[in-house]
Amino acid sequence: MRRAVCPGSFDPIHNGHLEVIARAAGLFDEVIVAVSTNIAKKYRFGLDERMDMARETLASLRGIIVEPMGEGLLAEYCRRRGVSAIVKGLRSSSDFDYELPMATMNRQLSGVETVFLPAEAHYVHLSSTLIKEVAQLGGDVSDFVPRSVLKRLQAGESPAAQSRS
Ligand code: ADP
To answer: How far is the CA of 115 from the centre of ligand 1 (A)?
Structure first.
């Protein structure tokens, strides 16, 4: 069985992530969406909520598991979970420049390959950070996130932004 991992902080998960995860599910028997937590990072949503949003959104797709990545190296996680490929979406050449050394390091550490999928043109500009900023200022992000995420983003908007919707 070929098992892949889509790692990320998913703070929150958005349609660009979902599109890449769905394509990965078409290429592998099982895809783990591994939700990471880095103590140096400040998250908008806690780990449980980030996992809930991913689970709610991916419930209809077969062969997908959502779980915490835990602490430590991704290469070690892949070894522990029997993962043969890391799947990453690429939005730009800067994504590639950032990802390439990590892909090489992960292969040298544990033999795991990294598979890059070009981001879908419609979602190529999306990042969790940009979506949070736009939502915070009352912008309409409903084309970019699933419903369960939209509800949570709206729940956290400023009163001024909420009164406009
Ligand atoms: P990070 O782990 O850097 O916080 P994210 O959780 O935002 O990253 O994203 C996890 C992964 O999802 C990224 O490494 C990238 O492979 C992919 N990704 C992010 N945004 C997009 C997008 N708009 N289109 C396709 N793939 C994306």
So the answer is: 13
Domain-located, residue 75: yes
Q: Look up 128 and say whether it is catalytic.
A: yes
Give me ligand 1 centre to Cα 163, in Å: 31
Check if 20 has its Cβ closer than 6 Å to any atom of ligand 1: yes
Instruction: Give 141's DSSP letter.
Output: -
Cβ of 89 closer than 6 Å to ligand 1, yes or no, is: yes
Q: Is 148 in the pocket of ligand 1 (CB under 6 A)?
A: no
Q: Token match 């599109």: residue?
A: 19
Cis before 12? omega within 30: yes
- Band (pLDDT 50/70/90 cuts) for residue 13 is very high
What is the model's pLDDT at position 144? Answer: 98
Residues 6+ apart with CB under 8 A from 104: none
CATH number, domain with residue 42: 3.40.50.620
Give 145-164 pLDDT, tens digit per residue: 999 999 999 987 644 444 43
Q: How far is the CA of 20 from the centre of ligand 1 (A)?
A: 9
Active-site pick, 36, 128, 132, 148? 128
Domain that includes residue 103, residue range: 3-160
Whether 165 is in a domain gets the answer: no
Looking at the structure of the chain, the number of domains it has is 1
Residue 30 in 3-state DSSP?
strand
Residue 130 falls inside a structural domain: yes
